Amino acid sequence: MDDTQWADSPSLKALLEAAREGGPLCLVLAARHSHGWDEEVLHALHTVAPLTHIALAELPEAEAAALVAIVLGDLADDVLTRRLVQRSGGHPLYLRSLLDGHGTARPGGPGRAALPASVVRRQLTGVPSEGVAALEALAVLGGSATVPVLSTVLGAPDCTSALDPLVHEEFITRTDAQVPTVAIRHGVFRDALYDTLPAVRRRVLHVAAVDAVDEGQGLAHRVAAAETVDVRLAADLLETATRELAEGGLLHAARTLLSAASLSHADDHRTDHLLYGAVRLLFWAGADAELTRHGHAVVTRRPCPWRDEALGLAEFAAGRLTSARRLLDQAQESLREAHPGQRAVVLTELSLVHAILG
């Protein structure tokens, strides 16, 4: 039984009762911690004989980076690898789930199941309210932050006292280098906690974070806090995407364009082109799973050559090459006279289809 730290007490007691009955049964419980287990479960656990406790170490950074390289191949640049390794905390299964969500999962494949809100909140039973608030703010900050930044988001002069119980209960880790830094121990818990935050609470924390972090991170928090169309923010995102693209960050630029499109007026033709540009960049970044997820949004846009191209690339990503060839050929014909430069890009994409089909 994996991830049994999330199991409820009746289920665990039933399992342990079965183990005590004897017979040819080997019961293996994998758990990251036992914070959510009540006294009855802990007592029942220690009445099972023979009981063997095996403590597993986290993947060392080099081994975690090797796993990233194996799964992502050429997409695994140093910055991305470091972020994935830090986010996973060396937990191999969670690292793999992050990789599966990074454009490597098969289209239509099962997503990673979210933890129920009740399970997450049960883990926080007994944690002081200021500690829970600190965990919530840390989740909004991406799972890690310096203590001064966290204090600013919480609106407190110093949140150090609220962090001590969290360190003791192993919810977070703390490093006291030049600037004290804290991080939620497991990214899976951070994601689950973030998802359980009420919308109002989440927005308040994102707004508070804007002025506490650097410009790039602040922009991300502005996007997360946005509730309506924001043309000025969309323009800032377009400028950021242009810079990211110039630096070779195709995937980052694509995601930034998608954010800009979501904050723009739906009936504006410029919104269409933000979406088309994002689809093209997702294709060239090799993020087929993301491209497939966003492809449906293209269908409802106005007919034009760039829509045909985007639909063709979505078909390509889904493995429907004959349909992709038809749509890309249609796009390049429409661009023949007016946009020769854009036509050259579409012809390159079309040549990839022909190379596969023969």
Number of helical elements: 19
CATH class of the largest domain: Mainly Alpha
Tell me the strand order in the biggest sheet.
1-3-2
Whole-number radius of gyration?
A: 24 Å
What would the principal axes of the Cα set say about the shape? Answer: globular
How much helical structure, as a percent, in the residues?
55-70%
The CATH H-level superfamily of the largest domain is: Tetratricopeptide repeat domain
Q: CATH fold name of the largest domain, please?
A: Serine Threonine Protein Phosphatase 5, Tetratricopeptide repeat
Largest sheet: 3 strands, antiparallel
Number of strands: 3
What portion of the residues fall into strands of 2 or more residues?
under 5%
| Domain module tally | 4
CATH architecture of the largest domain: Alpha Horseshoe
Structural class, by secondary structure, is mainly alpha
- What is the distance, rounded to the nearest whole angstrom, between the alpha carbons of the first and last residues? 48 Å
Q: How is this structure best summarized?
A:
The chain has 358 residues and is mainly α. 63% of the residues lie in helices and 4% in strands.
